[in-house]
Amino acid sequence: MTNTKPVNIINARIPGYQDLQMVLVNQEGMIEQILPMDQEYNRVPPQDIQILDVGGDWVSLGGVDLQINGALGLAFPDLAAENSHMLEKICKFLWDVGVDGFLPTLVTTSVENIQRSLAVIADFIPSQITGSQVLGVHLEGPFLNYQKRGAHPAEYLLPLTIDQVKRVLGDYAHVVKIITLAPELDPTGEVIPYLRSLGIAVSLGHSQATAAQAQNAFQQGATMVTHAFNAMPPLHHREPGLLGAAITNPHVMCGFIADGQHITPIMLQILLRASQGLFLVSDALSPLGLPDGVYPWDSRQIEVKNGTARLPDGTLSGTTLPLLVGVQNLLKWDICDVETAIALATNAPRQAINLPVITANKSSDLLHWHWSKNTKQLTWQRLLTS
After folding, report:
1. Which pTM was predicted?
2. How many Å is the maximal CA-CA distance in the chain?
């Protein structure tokens, strides 16, 4: 973004910063400094600087969605040359709903489909200019536990071996940012270190792992958990399981869905009280951006009602709610404060994949959040647009 003149954003609350701040943005649209507000900085500025007073509202980077399965009717595992133009439309749509960057998520399907989708995304990434940025790919499968496969088709699940991993990744390991797997499927303990050597973050999910098995996987290099509580054993006082091991590990971050269906608000409150290593995901499916109805999903169909998608047998398969709706839900349910809710969709996902949070030398593509205490409504808009 290029401004006609520099901008000083004043009286801003920023997640991770104390008190009110001033954000200095140069003509090139880059943040030069973030400074505490005080009398010195409140002086009358030169006439060539635009002043934007947000009056104590919150300012943040846009959201980052690390688990999103599709949008506008396109599931990312269905990407091919003939529909590749849809990626640009999806990037524009996600930008419009407050998402700065995302990982197209490929759920379990055939190796051929995975390779085809990876090829399309690999070609697209260097050419993207505007809109939400494709940051890489999240492979959710096919190395999942059959008993916890959820809506993933059983016929495409694969054993977790280095040879099978190489077969799935092919020539596109450099595109994959995260892979979700069930660690108990690898008795050798070789796969997670191999994936880490490729620069791929390992997330545990769709798994029956015990706490001991999960702790072992974390020692091997796994750093994340996919949609906490879902597709894994529940917390139990004698066998805390994968999630219990993750919550008590300060080096592990857990993604979670805040649609009110995947996890009840009470359990979300327990999760947020128990762990500091959390980030929001949408887990949105291809009907994201489309009205409720019945839609194709691989060789099956899903029915979307009020933003929740289920298979015909009632199996929960995902949502069609944008990421930032989760932020609003957390406040509607009175689960956390405004700063925490915003950070869970903006700062925390960036930290999970080692991206910088809001700071100097970052683009000033910022969101302006307004919290109404009277109505308990959180709204947002793009603050500076090109």
Report:
1. 0.95
2. 68
